[in-house]
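Quick one: Trehalose 6-phosphate phosphatase from Nelumbo nucifera, structure tokens please.
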Amino acid sequence: MDLKSNHAAPVLTDPIPISKSRLGIHTNLLPYSPPGGLFLTIPRKKPMPGKLDDVRISSWLDAMEASSPPRKKPTKDFNIEVASDDTDASYRSWMLKYPSALTSFDEITNYAMDKRIALFLDYDGTLSPIVDDPDRAFMSNAMRSAVRNVAKYFPTAIISGRRRDMVYEFVGLTELYYAGSHGMDIMGPVRHSVSADDHPNCIRSTDKQGKEVNLFQPASEFLPMIDEVFRTLVENTKGIKGAKVENHKFCTSVHYRNVDEKNWPIVAQCVHGVLKNYPRLRLTHGRKVLEVRPVIDWDKGKAVEFLLESLGLGDSADVVPIYVGDDRTDEDAFKVLREGNRGFGILVSSVPKDSSAFYSLRDPSEVMEFLKSLVRWKKLSKL
Ligand SMILES: O=P(O)(O)OC[C@H]1O[C@H](O[C@H]2O[C@H](CO)[C@@H](O)[C@H](O)[C@H]2O)[C@H](O)[C@@H](O)[C@@H]1O
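--- reply ---
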């Protein structure tokens, strides 16, 4: 099927909406208004917004500049991005709004007492440190073992922007559920609920171990289009030193982390030049990556709802979904939990960022600590 048509402009997804209210259980936290906003931006000469295209590219560039905190020095155990010293004070102040999930651990577990926790984990920047080469974003064995242990006690799923088989290869744990391509490729349990089974694009399949699973791919008709766009982007970015294009099956990513900042406008122009021929694709921003994906009403938030339903945990008041992620695309999941007034998001960030999450963790090492704490708590509560 030809999905191309020329009667509409590409849909551009702008920076995440700012949510100012905390809902549900967490009413005791101080309100917080950052003076003049918290995103770190680098002054830049913008193109004159003479044409609509220029305005779009200019807004992309703003988002590109805000897409990742500045790098200072790697810590001993994790090659993480660390904020500069002068942001420490604003980080502490930001934590009044997004308290650490470690220091708030008792609050979290008191709430989850006698309820069932379901755990959703993003991969890059959450389980693995952000590194220059996306092909080498390995998680540590210590993290793998923390994830393996937590999955013994709570249903656990990885929800990543990467292609599902790639993130499975990186994590390597058969006891988890995996969703790739920002939730557009879900391999989940065979349904407990009839409504989940009724979903179009959901087929019965078997995983690598021969276990029966449900495969849900709501964007399957876009496969040839994404492939075509991927190949065009590879071709068109060839001349941009440091640019890297990845094919994630139902979406494709253009990395500019290793591109000299003065060439970022060329990256934006190049992606825009391709995307404007595909009105059924849209652009979202990740950490120094432009992500091209189908215009369908599906994202990581929808994937969380789908998986909860598949696990038979959809409508229960006694289920506490916890989603841990670092990226803008994780905001869709945070929002679903916040707006549904169930469970909560935990934002992984070493710099202040506005978010729909309730809590924060600084980096993957704190994520690991949080996972271990959940296991300790569960073991103790069973005694
Ligand atoms: O949803 P996620 O699992 O967080 O995946 C989001 C993107 O992650 C990867 O890119 C990011 O991590 C790379 C490795 O640390 C880093 O080099 C890059 O700058 C980050 O954007 C992945 O390569 C992307 O395709 C994913 O969309």
